[in-house]
Write a structure and sequence with these properties.
about 300 residues; three-stranded mixed β-sheet; 9 strands
């Protein structure tokens, strides 16, 4: 199967690069520098989405929002160029309801859609250890499973179309709650004279250990972000999660609180903020501060 990849941001670029390790990939992105990096690694660049769709049997997309996926598919010629029997695999952290609607529209053209968002960061994608949460028809998933295996052995069939994105929203909601709980705890510690490195050692040796304490907390102590992910994209995911919860009668009390805290941090730091910046927001609210950020020197 000929593979195309659309959306070469931090995560999409890492996933496309991982696919390149074991075979050819045709890529497209509006960012020409991102395309050039993949081409330097062996990818072939498509001049437009229609050409990519015409030349590929399986097209992955990893874009900021489901609205961007719909635009790529139906406004910019990708779906029209795909042949019946082709596969569209959406790795966007998107709206499961919108994904189901797009899948229905594609099915009218004989095109199969699968949602397959990921968790584990760009480093996990590059290392081939990332978790892939998959939703779709089991027969369609089985047909492209060898391609998923080229990215990572950690694949999880979550259910019908949209189920992978529901799982990703749950994952990101819990992850965000963990981040804020950790940050509030350690800022209380700072206000009471505890050392940040000591708190990191203790928390990571006991029951409060989480990805936030393992990765973000040591990075805060060093003043170096552990990764870059736009805060507003996580806010988008929490908005989707709380909306889904409301639609399905789930209180989601901690999730709602985390969504509000993300909104407050976004208002404070603006659209270009890194998710890592929420540490500064929580510290300021607590009347303290983490070590100076070396990336701002």
């Amino acid at each position: 199967m000929r593979i195309g990849y659309v959306g070469l941001g931090v995560m999409g670029g890492a996933l496309a690069q991982r696919l390149l390790v074991s075979g050819p990939v045709t890529v497209f992105d509006l960012n020409t520098d991102a395309v050039a990096r993949l081409v330097a690694g062996g990818a072939q660049a498509a001049p437009d989405l229609a050409t990519l769709g015409h030349d590929c049997d399986v097209v992955f997309l990893c874009l900021p929002r489901s609205a961007n996926v719909r635009a790529a598919l139906f406004d910019h010629g990708l779906a029209a160029a795909l042949k019946a029997g082709s596969y569209v695999i959406d790795q966007t952290s998107g709206d499961p309801n919108e994904t189901r609607a797009m899948a229905a529209d594609l099915a009218k053209r004989g095109i199969h859609m699968i949602d397959a968002p990921v968790s584990g960061g760009a480093k996990g994608a590059e290392a081939g250890t990332i978790a892939i949460m998959i939703g779709g028809d089991p027969a369609h998933i089985a047909a492209v499973q060898p391609i998923f295996d080229r990215i990572s052995p950690n694949t999880f069939q979550c259910g019908a179309i949209g189920a992978g994105q529901v799982m990703k929203l749950i994952n990101n909601m819990i992850s965000t709650c963990n981040r804020f709980a950790m940050l509030e705890g350690v800022t209380m510690g700072l206000r009471n004279g505890l050392d940040l490195n000591v708190m990191s050692d203790v928390l990571n040796s006991g029951g409060a250990r989480s990805k936030a304490s393992e990765n973000m907390l040591p990075a805060l102590a060093k003043g170096v972000p552990d990764s870059f992910f736009f805060l507003n994209l996580m806010l988008k995911d929490l908005n989707l999660a709380t909306s889904l919860a409301s639609d399905t009668g789930v209180p989601l009390q901690f999730g709602q609180m985390a969504r509000g805290m993300l909104q407050a941090a976004s208002n404070r730091f603006g659209p270009e903020a890194n998710l890592f910046d929420i540490g500064d927001h929580v510290a300021a609210e607590a009347g303290t501060a983490f070590p100076a950020r070396k990336d701002r020197e």
